[in-house]
Amino acid sequence: MATELLTRPAPGLQTFIPELVYFEPDALNYPKGQKIMEWAEQNGLPIRMTSSHNRITNLPGESELEKYRIAKRTLVVGIRKTLKFDQSMPSAEYAIPIATGCMAHCHYCYLQTTLGAKPYIRVYVNMDDILNAAQGYLDERAPEITRFEAACTSDPVGLEHITGSLQEAIAFMAKQPLGRLRFVTKFHHVEPLLNVEHNGNTRIRFSVNADYVIKNFEPATSSFLDRIEAAGKIARAGYPLGFIIAPIIWFEGWEEGYAELLNKLKATVPPEAEKTMTFELIQHRFTKTSKRVILERYPKTKLEMDEAKRKYKWGRWGQGKYVYPDEQATALREFITEQIFEKFPQSSIDYFT
């Protein structure tokens, strides 16, 4: 199937249009780079050249906060040079890198710190190289099934109308008996994916949450109802469907909030999707560094980040984070788990972390 670029915006939240586009020179040696250049020109976007994304230091803005907001609407089109994939447990064995950065403004997002001072959005035009690298990992792990997570460093659905990269990855994985693709999104712009041959080898998950969380902490994302409508389209297109409830936040009225969330899902998810549907549950966590960055970028946030109310948990890589104390974490897990199995008895919960 030919890659569908330049698709029209769907109703609701409009598809992402950057305010500024940078191209690395080598990107124009690839058909995808040339098509994105044509798209940027057709949309009348300011275009600049850069020898490397690392040399972008002159983004407009008078304050650091203004520069951050402009960076979130800056697109950098380049080559993915590092083809060694990072691990992505517990979601998958590896992260497949098709984009970096996100246009949404979720206050709690871990990309606040992992992207550091360069929060602009990067897309990669050398998808053949990336997919060839994925083939190498598949061959290396055979006869085991290998899962690839495409949303570790971005929300690629929000960029699909520009890149078409998810379509290429889905079509590639459809031909792999031992390969599986996974990605999660807070956007509803799934139309380019609905007619791609996937062979059931790609699971598309939607990030959902209580109304309180979406309203207060997820600016510039699709509404809950738009996400659920998109989930129905994905299910009817035959894709395995999943939901990530993350971050699970302890707030006044959280039980009612998460019960209402699952009631809405039950009322709107196509029954035929339930047999293979999965849930992933992730409690809110933060580090000292992420707290500092979040408060700098979203100084009026209502996000609770009081270390005195949290438990310090060491990570696999020797870095610690603040999570809920065991009593609260257990209450969250047990309540939401019970709600899921009551309403979706045929579904499964992959993990709670």
Structure report:
By secondary structure, the chain is of the alpha/beta class. It has one domain (80-352): pyruvate-formate lyase- activating enzyme (Alpha-Beta Horseshoe), CATH 3.80.30.30. It has helices spanning 31-42, 64-71, 111-114, 127-141, 160-163, 165-174, 211-217, 224-236, 254-268, 288-297, 326-343, and strands at 20-23, 47-49, 74-78, 87-88, 92-95, 99-100, 121-124, 146-149, 179-185, 202-208, 241-248, 278-283, 311-314, 320-323, 348-352. It has an 8-stranded mixed beta sheet with strand order 4-5-8-9-10-11-12-15, covered by helices on one side. Strands 2-1-3-7-6 form a 5-stranded mixed beta sheet, with helices on one face. Helix 1 (31-42) links the parallel strand 1 and strand 2.
Task: State the gist of this model.
The protein is an alpha/beta fold.
Keywords summarizing the entry:
11 helices, 33% helix, pyruvate-formate lyase- activating enzyme, 5-stranded mixed sheet, single chain, alpha/beta, 353 residues, disordered N terminus, globular, 8-stranded mixed sheet
